[in-house]
Amino acid sequence: MNDNTFDYIIVGGGTAGSLLANRLSADASKRVLLIEAGKKDDYHWVHIPVGYLYCIGNPRTDWLYETEATPGLNGRSLRYPRGKVLGGCSSINGMIYMRGQARDYEQWAQITGNDEWRWDQTLPYFKLHEDHYKGANEFHGAKGSKSELLAPTDLAPGSYLHTLRGRVAGGEWRIEKQRLRWDVLDAFAQAAQQAGIPATDDFNRGDNEGVSYFEVNQKNGWRWNTAKAFLRPTCYARPNFELWNKAQVAKLIIDTQPDGSQRCTGVRVWSGVEMVEVKATREVILSAGSIGSAQILQLSGIGPGALLQDKGVEVTHDLPGVGANLQDHLQIRSVYKVKNTKTLNTMANSLWGKAMIGLEYALKRTGPMSMAPSQLGAFTKSDPSQPHANIQYHVQPLSLDAFGEPLHSFPAITASVCNLNPTSRGTVQIKTNKFDDAPAIAPSYLATDLDRKVAADSLRVTRRIMDQPAMMPFQPEEFKPGVQYQSDEELAKLAGDIASTIFHPVGTTRMGRDDDPMAVVNARLQVRGVAGLRVVDAGVMPTITSGNTNSPTLMIAEKAAHWIAQDAERTPSA
Q1: Do 552 and 538 touch, CB atoms closer than 8 A?
Q2: pLDDT in tens, 88-100
Q3: Where do the DSSP E strands lie in 421-488?
Q4: According to the model, what pLDDT value does residue 510 have?
Q5: What is the rounded average pLDDT of the residues 139-154?
Q6: pLDDT attached to residue 1
Q7: Residues 183-210 pLDDT 10s
Q8: Is 380 left (phi over 0), alpha (psi -120 to 50) or beta?
Q9: Dihedral sign computed on CA atoms, order 244, 245, 247, 252
Q10: How are the residues of the chain apportioned to helix, strand and coil, as percentages rounded to the nearest 5?
Q11: What integer pLDDT is reported at residue 408 of this predicted model?
Q12: Peptide bond preceding 233: is omega within 30 degrees of 0, i.e. cis?
């Protein structure tokens, strides 16, 4: 092999790409290249948990996307943060460990016709990389425990799982309790129980209904991103692994084979100085996220033919689903002024307060600087007729107009609520044929009557919780949206005024059955109609999970790595 030929090329060094790089390079006979458009994760605010406030909207770590003006948001556009740094969104996200609900994966299995996506067959792949602070049990893995995937004594020598066991893989993804609590959040949890939401001690057993503090991807008070978990020092020490950062993939190289079929044989990469061509003898794996992977496919001539022709891109493979099916969780951020308690608004509104916060973190790794963006969570039904919990709360002891904006000057909390299973569908579409032009992101929030009804009902649930006796000592006063709004129509419109993304875009390269014309990849994540090409990121989700999407993306990558290695065992390289 020459220096620009690899067995595997992974595009995107984020959540999925970092794990894939670790797993595929475990086989010392395979040469692996990981390409990341952003810089390394050596920016200090990446590692301090509250640093998300300084990473979102920062060109050092964020792609700085904005959505198209959205009718459901009354014509507003939103910032659309996506990680442009090693570790991807795991370097700038809320650090919440959340798998979703078992029914999500049962639905994936039904949509794809593949039982390998069922809950009981995805759970072992969650557990394989998990290092849970409580230790290993039926639902959780821990470093040093025996994964059921790696435990069998009859694993064939040289097989993927045998290789991982030999490399002592597993338990890299640390999950811990948060290192702080707030009186006002404890009261909210009690009020939620008074309103009929049960307490829970684990959101990740397949049914997440309940209220509790979130568990987070942190280690000893520091953010634990996928670069630390899967790349350092493991991959950096492997001679068969190579990382290119500050390198942006401009397009895929698609060759027509002698039999007329098409195969992805490499990528063209902009190094910042020149365009470099890199070859893959086995597979190119797109892990650039729901926005980036759809954009790269379209720029490479794989996507809706009419769109590509309109943008001056030669159609290589007309695949209409590329960029369609965009789903996201829209959080409706109700703000309540409170009294007789401290919140971050008042703690951080002076130099002295900020100094005390900084000193506590420096000495103990506790306090507000160790905070995830949301500390307390709750899952419940938007109305009693719902068959399962269909809304999620992210509750914060602070308030602001939007992330990146200053905290309000008065003590307050924010109870953000989102529809877990939105029926609205948006798009990601290239605007031009230039790789460095951002695509048009149109989430189409609140585009359906059902989504607007859930939005209105969820605001009523928030009010019911805040009216419970446990909150009365704090004299909560609804600041946003305002008690004057009561009807479904008023509340849905107000939701459009105050809601924002919760940073969970999925679905733009969704998987499905072979007879599904809108499926972009098959059940094993191979791009339909183009050999040697896979998509492994949140874009492949056919429906969004019922909760935060980072951990399900890691599980997808874990399963994909196994499939990729299995395919390599069966077939020679190209």
Answers
A1: yes
A2: 999 999 999 999 9
A3: 427-429, 440-442, 477-480
A4: 98
A5: 91
A6: 38
A7: 999 999 999 999 999 999 999 999 999 9
A8: beta
A9: positive
A10: 30, 25, 45
A11: 87
A12: yes
Identify whether the C-beta of residue 173 lies closer than 8 Å to the C-beta of residue 129: yes
What the block records as the tokens of 253 is 């190289």
CA angle 433, 57, 181 (to 5 degrees): 140
Which has the closest alpha carbon to 483: 467, 468, 471?
Answer: 467
Amino acid at 543: T
Q: Give the separation between CA 349 and CA 357, rounded to whole angstroms.
A: 11
How many Å separate Cα 305 from the centre of its chain?
29
Residue 263, token pair as written in the block: 């195969």
Residue 127 to residue 141: CA distance in whole angstroms: 4
Instruction: Give the integer Cα–Cα distance in Å for 225 and 344.
Output: 25
Is 388 considered catalytic here?
A: no
Select which of 132, 317, 504, 562 is catalytic. 504
What single letter denotes the amino acid at residue 555? Answer: M
- pLDDT tens digits for 529-570? 999 999 999 999 999 999 999 999 999 999 999 999 999 988
Specify the residue for token string 């953000």: 416
Phi, psi for 460 (deg, rounded to 5): -70, -35
Task: For residue 546, give the nearest of 210, 216, 213 by alpha carbon.
Answer: 210
SS3 state at 2: coil
Structure tokens at 357: 């916060």
Report the pLDDT value the prediction gives residue 201, as an integer from 0 to 100. 95
